[in-house]
Amino acid sequence: MSAALTNPGAPATDIDADLESVRKAATGYQTTITTALGLFSISGVVFAEDPVSLLTATGKVLFGIAAALALLAGLAAIGAVTFAAHGWPSREQKIGKSVITVKGRAEALRDAVNGLVLALCFAAASVLLLAAAVAIAWFWWNDPEAVRAAAAAKGG
Fold first, then answer.
1. Residue stretches of the chain with pLDDT short of 70
2. Rounded CA separation 150/148 (Å)
3. Of the candidates 36, 73, 59, the residue with the CA atom closest to the CA atom of residue 138
4. Whether the Cβ atoms of residue 3 and residue 10 lie closer than 8 Å to each other
5. Residue 37's Cα: distance from chain center in Å?
6. So what's the pLDDT on residue 92?
7. Which pLDDT belongs to residue 93?
8. How many Å apart are CA 152 and CA 102, to the nearest integer?
9. Which residues of 26-53 are buried (b: 16+ CB within 10 A; e: fewer)?
10. How many CB atoms within 10 Å of residue 99?
11. Is the alpha carbon torsion for 5, 8, 10, 13 positive or negative?
């Protein structure tokens, strides 16, 4: 763990270097999280129509809940990693010719680390919820009548 995180009185140069390092890592995760969630979402839209149409009413509700929660977790992950990469907006006060930043650099570092950890947790939750939605659509709560009708329509 960084000295700047464990010692709030660390020199500003350590804090600035750690902040830059965390924000650089968060920028990389930002691309990865956004791409991974986008690919999962696109594949879900492409492949989900037929399996979802075969679900019972309960299965459709459960699928909808899992998919909606996955979307919300994904959006939360993207938001958290964006703030970790670029920082939270801070207010500055001008006193004469000097500028005083209200949020200190140590607080910005703490916020960046917490944002990155939160983003990774939300991304993992989103992937797990998407997997649950796929499992519901493909393996559970199929309506036998709809399955027979779909098979008959395909010539099976």
1. 1-13, 44-49, 89-103, 141, 143, 147, 155-156
2. 5
3. 59
4. yes
5. 8
6. 58
7. 55
8. 68
9. beebbeebbeebeebbeebeeebeebbe
10. 9
11. positive
Helix/strand/coil for 118 = helix
- State both tokens at 69: 């929660």
The overall pTM is greater than 0.85: no
CB-side neighbour CA atoms (13 Å) of 152: 6
- The helix/strand count (H/E) of the chain reads as 5, 2
How many residues are present in the chain?
156
Token pair in block for residue 156: 């099976």
**Cα 94–chain centre separation:** 36
Taken in order 124, 125, 130, 135, the sign of the CA dihedral is: positive
Q: CA-CA distance, 127 to 133, in Å (whole number)?
A: 10
Q: How many Å apart are CA 78 and CA 87, to the nearest integer? A: 13
Residue 36 in tokens: 């991974």
